[in-house]
Structure formats: C-alpha cells, structure tokens
C-alpha cells in the first residue's frame, strides 16, 4: 500500500512541476473568485452539526480539486472545475441473525471523480466506483462480499458499448492485487438494458479468481426490475460459486425507495460443514434520507433457508445508518436512475 501511495505521489508531483507557479496561482485565483465549487455558505443560525458537515464536505471537495489540478491541463474551464468532486460514505449496520450471534459492521467507501483524468485514471476505496445504478440498495448483508480495498484504475479502452480497465491496489486485510475488468453495455430496447462484466483478479499473496456478472434491468416509470446472474471461479473457490437474483426496485418518493428481492446462491463443490454456502433468501430493503439529505437509514428484514441448517427458515434483520460527505454526487436516495435505457451511459453500469 505504501508503494502504491508513493507511485501516486510521484506521478502527481511530476505533473505539478509542468505547471508554473504563476499559472497555478492564476488558476486557483480564478476558481476562488468566480467558481467557488467547494464553498458552502453556513448561516450563523445553523446548528453545529450542519456547520461541521459543511466543513468536512468542503474539505473533501477541495482535496479532489487539488488532486485534479495536478493531472489536468493548464487551462481550466468552468465545467471542469465545477465537476471535480469527491464523496465519502460512512455507514454502520447492526445485523441480527437467528441461530447466530449479532454483528456490527462498520464500513467506509470513497470515490474521487477527477474530470481531467476520468478517461484514464480513477481512485477507488473499497472497490466501489460511481455506478449510480441502484446496486447499493440491492446488497443484502449476510452475503459473501469481496474484500475491502484501495486501488487505482486505468481505463485502457473505452469505445461505444465496451470498456477495458486495469486496477492496481491492495486489500485492507491482505496484500496487493491486480485486476483486469471488461464491461459491455447493450440497450435491448428503450426501457431494457443488458450489462455484462468480466473480472480477472490476481492476489500476489493469495491466489487468483475470475468473476462474471450478467444483469438485465427493465425500467417502468418509477420501478426497475432486475435479473442478475453472477459466478466466481478461482484457485481457492469451492468450485464455481454462483448467485442468481430477481429484484424489484421501487421509488416511493424523492427521499425513499424499497427493494424486494429473491436470491439463491451456492457452489458446485460446496463443503458439507459450517461453511456451506447454499442459501435461499427472500427480503426487503427500505432506505430513506431523514433529518438531513446527507443522513440516511435503511431497514432490511430477510427470511433465509441455509443448507447448513437443513433449509429451516432463519430470520435475519439489518438496521443501519449512513452519512455522506462531499460534493458533486447525487444523494443516496437518488441513486436509482429512471431515465430511458438509451440515455444511460456505459460508464454508469456496475
């Protein structure tokens, strides 16, 4: 991880030297006097928590703009400065499982959007890019997740409905890794979208694995119907690990949405012990922003039928909160896009 940060630091410094001090001063003076992309006006009567949130959001935005200036050209347009942004999401879930102990799951996610280099490099934390396709709502706890990580993504090819990217990063709980990812996006009709993603990951201290995911989204007014198949195979997987999901994503208001889903997952070489993976799930995920646009809570009840409990109904309940800091991104309650499938962009697919 230290090596990765060193590479980023050296690269930014080399590009920064290319800009003269006079040009950089002029650029930032123009941004400060005319654009003010990171400045929030806090009224005197604002409570302390609103002032603190604005301060942290401005700091996050300033860091994104500062980093973007190192990679960008000498001339900075109004749209470039205003679009430079960053987002940090801090969340905590409390998971209650029947027949198992309760758990608290904290999580931090961050993405840095840098318009000067978005077609080449992207900084990711926790392996999340700005998909904006509602996947955050359709992510039931209890399901096996990929390891948390930080990475730099380089997009080698991006044309029409295909893109190819290369990641270099490190897991927070493990060693470094590299990943190659290919994505395909195909609008089947004016309200149906097909997306396919293929990843190949090499973990230097562990093993390799590949992940395939096919998704069909059908948009009907304020409802999305999602059909998804995912598979994973690697050196240390239990054969071919798979998951199938059907979901209905419904926007209730500008601040709330609910997902109902049915899924089944397992593995071709599923071990017959406590690590058995085959499980059926039926659940709902209700998400709403309250109190402030940047403060969100979610509730998720599930009924599961795991093979390790002889398919007996097992109840699971998740309650969580999320706080967002940053600028230039839609609030969490607006993450689902209900536009025409032809208006969506390949870069917005998961």
Describe this structure in words.
This protein is α+β, with helices and mostly antiparallel strands and 350 residues long. 18% of the residues lie in helices and 47% in strands. It has four helices and 14 strands. β1 and β2 form a beta hairpin. α1 crosses α3. The N terminus and C terminus are likely disordered.
Give the SSE layout:
Layout: H1 2-18, H2 21-35, H3 48-71, H4 78-83, E1 85-97, E2 103-113, E3 121-125, E4 149-159, E5 162-171, E6 176-189, E7 192-203, E8 208-220, E9 223-234, E10 240-253, E11 256-267, E12 279-289, E13 295-306, E14 314-327
Antiparallel strand pairs: 1-2, 1-14, 2-3, 3-4, 4-5, 5-6, 6-7, 7-8, 8-9, 9-10, 10-11, 11-12, 12-13, 13-14
In short:
The protein is an alpha+beta fold.
- The overall pLDDT, averaged over residues, is 70
How many domains?
Answer: 1
Instruction: Write the H/E string, N to C.
Output: HHHHEEEEEEEEEEEEEE
CATH class: Mainly Beta
Give me the CATH architecture, please. Answer: Beta Barrel
How many helices does DSSP assign?
4
Sheet having the most strands: 14 strands, antiparallel, barrel
Strand order of the largest sheet: 1-2-3-4-5-6-7-8-9-10-11-12-13-14
Task: Provide the β-strand percentage band.
Answer: over 45%
Instruction: Briefly note the CATH topology name.
Output: Porin
How far from one another are the termini?
A: 25 Å
**Rg, Å, rounded:** 22 Å
As residue ranges, the low-confidence spans are: 1-21, 30-37, 63-84, 127-144, 329-350
Shape: globular
The CATH H-level homologous superfamily: monomeric porin ompg
Strand elements, count: 14
Content-based structural category: alpha+beta
For this entry, what is the oligomeric state of its chains?
Answer: single chain
Helix content percent band: 10-25%
């Amino acid at each position: 991880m230290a090596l990765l940060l060193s590479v980023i630091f050296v690269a930014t410094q080399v590009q920064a030297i290319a800009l003269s001090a006079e040009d950089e001063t002029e650029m930032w003076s123009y941004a400060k006097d005319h654009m003010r992309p990171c400045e929030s006006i806090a009224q005197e009567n604002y409570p302390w928590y609103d002032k603190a949130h604005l301060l942290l959001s401005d700091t996050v935005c300033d860091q994104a703009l500062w980093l973007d200036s190192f990679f960008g050209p000498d001339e900075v347009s109004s749209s470039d400065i205003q679009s430079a942004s960053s987002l940090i999401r801090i969340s905590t879930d409390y998971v209650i499982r029947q027949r198992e102990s309760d758990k608290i799951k904290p999580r931090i996610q961050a993405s840095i959007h840098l318009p000067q280099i978005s077609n080449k490099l992207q900084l990711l934390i926790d392996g999340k890019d700005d998909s904006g396709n509602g996947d955050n709502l359709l992510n039931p706890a209890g399901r096996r997740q990929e390891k948390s990580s930080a990475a730099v993504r380089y997009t080698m090819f991006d044309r029409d409905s295909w893109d190819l990217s290369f990641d270099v990063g490190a897991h927070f709980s493990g060693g470094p890794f590299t990943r190659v990812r290919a994505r395909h996006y195909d609008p089947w009709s004016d309200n149906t979208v097909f997306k396919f993603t293929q990843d190949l990951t090499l973990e230097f201290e562990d093993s390799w694995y590949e992940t395939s995911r096919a998704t069909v989204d059908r948009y009907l007014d304020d409802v999305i119907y999602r059909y998804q198949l995912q598979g994973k195979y690697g050196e240390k997987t239990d054969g071919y690990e798979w998951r199938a999901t059907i979901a209905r994503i419904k926007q209730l208001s500008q601040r709330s949405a609910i997902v109902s889903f049915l899924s089944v997952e397992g593995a071709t070489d599923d071990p017959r012990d406590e690590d058995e993976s085959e499980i059926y799930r039926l659940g709902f995920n209700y998400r709403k922003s309250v109190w402030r646009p940047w403060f969100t809570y979610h509730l998720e009840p599930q009924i599961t039928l795991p093979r390790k409990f002889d398919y007996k109904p097992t109840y699971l309940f998740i309650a969580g909160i999320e706080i967002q800091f940053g600028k230039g991104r839609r609030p969490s309650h607006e993450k689902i896009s209900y536009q025409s499938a032809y208006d969506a962009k390949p870069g917005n697919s998961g």
